[in-house]
């Protein structure tokens, strides 16, 4: 009986000493879990309204949830009277080691997050970045995939994309096509200009707003050069570029306007 009474007293003392801590820890866990759930719901709705990329949304929500859960567990352990300083030190050291090991990957991940949030380009845009020109095929967390004009797949790290210069040819909905057409010095400049301008205004793929322009750009060795500059939609760039060169040549020939041949330049230089 005496032994049972001793164990009973110890149990009562234990309950008196640790009971409030255990109850407090349980309450902290329950309330903390409820708060985390509410926070996640608010964040999820906010990201959906901002049209975040689905993969990025899931990753960020998971990251936030794990961070809050670890913080909650540390609070629960602390409430039970366990020293949490060592836990915090271990977590910090592990985080530092992982960060150093994945420095490049984390840089690309951060770049991917920035690109998806600020959207300097989207899938289908024609862009030029990191020395690569191409149409955006995919925007992933770590890389951006571009299809070049010669149908090659270029994979560019997002860290470099986010920290470098990006030229988005599609963003404004139009592009200027720069070509140079030369005519002989003996030809009438105004007539040649009218012929070239008519070629541009007759092309259905050339935008009329902004209006195309034809201007004398250079008095070269054997020709008067015109800067022929039509505007078009980005997807029509190459059609307008090649079409402008071909149609200008045909129109000038039909009008009887001379286009100097390259060998004429050599003859004049020798003369």
Descriptive account of the structure:
The structure is a single chain. The protein has 271 residues and is of the alpha+beta class. It is built from eight helices and ten strands. It has helices spanning 2-49, 54-79, 85-101, 103-118, 158-163, 189-202, 237-254, 262-270; strands spanning 126-129, 132-139, 143-147, 153-157, 166-168, 175-176, 179-183, 213-219, 224-229, 231-232. The strands form three sheets. The chain has a five-stranded antiparallel sheet.
Count of extended strands = 10
Mean pLDDT reading? 81
The quaternary state of the protein chains shown equals single chain
Uncertain runs are 263-271
What is the spatial order of strands in the main beta sheet?
Answer: 4-3-2-1-5
SS element count, helices: 8
Could you estimate the helical fraction of the residues in percent? 55-70%
Q: Using only CA atoms, what is the Rg?
A: 35 Å
Main sheet: strands, sense, barrel: 5 strands, antiparallel
SSE string, helices as H and strands as E? HHHHEEEEHEEEHEEEHH
Helix vs. strand class: alpha+beta
**What percent strand?**
15-25%
Distance between the termini: 130 Å
Shape: rod-shaped
